[in-house]
What we know:
26% helix, alpha/beta, Ribosomal Protein S5, domain 2, 3 domains, seven-stranded mixed β-sheet, Rossmann fold
Amino acid sequence: MPKAKINFVCQECGHDSPKWLGRCPGCGAWNSMVEEPVAKTAPAAGRCLPPAKPRPITAVDTAGLPRLTTGIEEFDRVLGGGIVPGSLVLLGGDPGIGKSTLLLQVAGGLSAAGSKVLYVSGEESAAQTRLRAERLGKMNDNLLVMTETNLDEIVGQAEAIVPALVVVDSIQTMFSPDLPSAPGSVGQVRESTGRLLRFAKESAVPVVIIGHVTKDGNIAGPRLLEHMVDVVLYFEGERSYAFRVLRAMKNRFGATTESGLFSMEETGLAQVENPSALLLAERPQGVPGSVVLACLEGMRPLLIEIQALVSTTCFGMPRRMAAGLDYNRLVLLMAVLEKRVGLALGNQDAYVNAVGGIRIDEPAADLAVCLALAASFRNLAIDPATAVMGEVGLTGEVRMISRVDLRVREAAALGFKRVVVPAGNMAGLKARPAGLAIIGASNVVEAMEAVMT
């Protein structure tokens, strides 16, 4: 018998090689080449759409493609108003963060409205899925559960039922009989996603798939997977906190600046209507090192407490720790405070925390971090009715930030009496609520003089 042909495929980028390599030449990953047999006949590529003739774009009718509203406003807003028929959505997140819970609630919301939903689970049995649905209160005859990993069977049942939505949990457990490799391999993930993409486009039935993530936080499998789908969603949050954030990293039908906030409760994921009030509910009053930051989570303004603790080190090398903030940014800001402001922080331990488990990535948090560190170092309390925002440069200047009006209105709605904004934003600031004092600061020293008494 002829010897079976073997290829070695990188599990990170999909690069293939006829021999094993310690380091992938495509992406540079070490020990990522896995042996996979080569299929004798390549699977048919198929067509995503039926043949069509060119026509003017103004003649294309979109009235027959209404979005599906799931009843979960946070989820619908991130997608741009609902699920588009015929779209392929990829949802990723850390293990145990609540991906399956979120999509089961979405499926339950659509089925309660009278639409049939097919929920395919390759990781749990039908009994386990029912137990979760009972806990979430999503029991409905229109919610169809299927435990299967063979993609031919899944697509066949979906074509026979023609549901309003298909949920696949997860894509790494699915396999196509046309490929001899094991489920979860690069070839299987790519082929399974391609089959689901063709089904979604040909039948106009939206498909939502769950993808596992690697230790680096990226979707497992080739990068091509994210290019094939229409929408890429990431479900993030600290497992020790109740808050969860849904972000759109790619969206062909809407903006990628929206985000949805959820709270993990006993009965599932609950939408957070006023996250700022919830995040500031236990804020201490008159304590040195506590500052309120007006930041943005997508397009939504949030008020988050930034806490800092500065104390003399007991060792030769002072420690710096950041929770919810970039560590390198913290080190940079401490150098600015020492050089430009004159604070002797070289022999001080510094610990900074964004309360609530929210991860802050925008540079508008720089000024709040600087003021929290300075207040803790000088043992001075900042007025609890003051909110700050602004980016800090290496020369100590406070630079302009975006969407200041949204942040100012959010601070006024929660009863704050004073906000500190970059001086460059004062000229274009339109929001000036009554009873709210707006102070422009051009550098860190001016901001410290405005909030520290």
